[in-house]
Amino acid sequence: MKLGIAITTFNRAEHLLKQINFIRQFSLGEYELVVCDDGSTDNTVEMLEQADVSYISSGNKGIAWNKNRGLYYLANYTSCDVFLLLDDDILPCMYGWDVEWCKGAQLHGHINYVSDFVKSKVVFGRCTAHNPGLCPVVQGTALAISREAFQFIGYMDSRFGRYGHEHTEYTNRYVKAGFGGIIRNDSTNLYAIMDSGLELNHLPSSGSLKEAKKNEHLLSKLSKEPLYRNPWFNDQEKQDFLKEFEGISDIITIPEWEILKDFDIDFYLKTYPDVKVSGIDPVTHYYLYGRHENRKCKRD
């Protein structure tokens, strides 16, 4: 099983280099690493080139956009089985940390990191891959996703802008799809979490509580939309996003993904009312069942 690691960073070159060295020192399995630089003004790019690390560097667009850079790269330019998003303030602290996070994503489809600061809120579990904790609070510092789970959910929602709540909304979609958590009878979520082999360093944030506050209303508003999201919200964002990947090596084509790109949700629900009655996400239903039953995914 191959791990893809995407580090998102902004103006933390010195700490980023330490993080990369720790990844190289403590990782035991096969992995690919890419750094997503959100328009740093320090020597981040020069340091990455000297360290011979693949990177994507463009304008400062905020957390959701920058993490989508990593997801897009791992999904389309690598053959990795698991995608791991790391902020630049978290460090591996034991040999084999990568194996444990691969296993967590493989077993649960989606799993988050929990720091000691939040661990007191865990209601169940040992916070390992085989026995993850369940917690009503989720942190955005590290997130592992299996490729299979990713194809149902896609990317973070770019409408969250620069900072705030994008990670919670993203994780809620995975839990809703049945990956890495449970929905309780009172409609609140418990998230699957682990702390195996990673240690959080509390560094000053470039975001602000004011920015986060502006995004609170989006959590409930976007919960009514389909689970899958593209890394862009409109045609202009699509052009801007894809332009950042010009000149990168050939995209790896996955046949199942090509099918899902043309999926017509409205057509599928109208044609197969049993799917609508079941309450299953239509894209998930088609991928798991419909295509094997020769159901149509779009109008001829």
Molecular structure report:
The protein is of the alpha/beta class. The protein folds into 2 domains: 3-243, Alpha-Beta Complex (Spore Coat Polysaccharide Biosynthesis Protein SpsA, Chain A), CATH 3.90.550.10; 255-293, no CATH class. The chain contains 13 helices and 11 strands. The strands form 2 sheets. Strands 1, 2, 3, 4, 6, 7, 8, 9 and 10 form a 9-stranded mixed sheet that branches.
Low-confidence stretches: none
CATH superfamily of the largest domain: Spore Coat Polysaccharide Biosynthesis Protein SpsA, Chain A
* Overall strand count: 11
Q: Determine the structural class based on helices, strands and strand pairing.
A: alpha/beta
Q: Report the span from N to C terminus.
A: 38 Å
The major pleated sheet works out as: 9 strands, mixed
Global shape: globular
Tell me the number of structural domains.
2
Name the beta content range. 15-25%
State the share of residues found in helices, binned by percent.
25-40%
Average pLDDT? 90
**Helix-strand pattern:** EHEHEHEEHEEEHHEEEHHHHHHH
- The count of helical stretches stands at 13
CATH topology of the largest domain: the name is: Spore Coat Polysaccharide Biosynthesis Protein SpsA, Chain A
* The CATH class of the largest domain: Alpha Beta
Q: In the CATH hierarchy, what is the architecture of the largest domain at level 2?
A: Alpha-Beta Complex
Pfam family, one: Glycos_transf_2
Protein name: Glycosyltransferase 2-like domain-containing protein
Family: Belongs to the glycosyltransferase 2 family.
Organism: Commensalibacter intestini A911
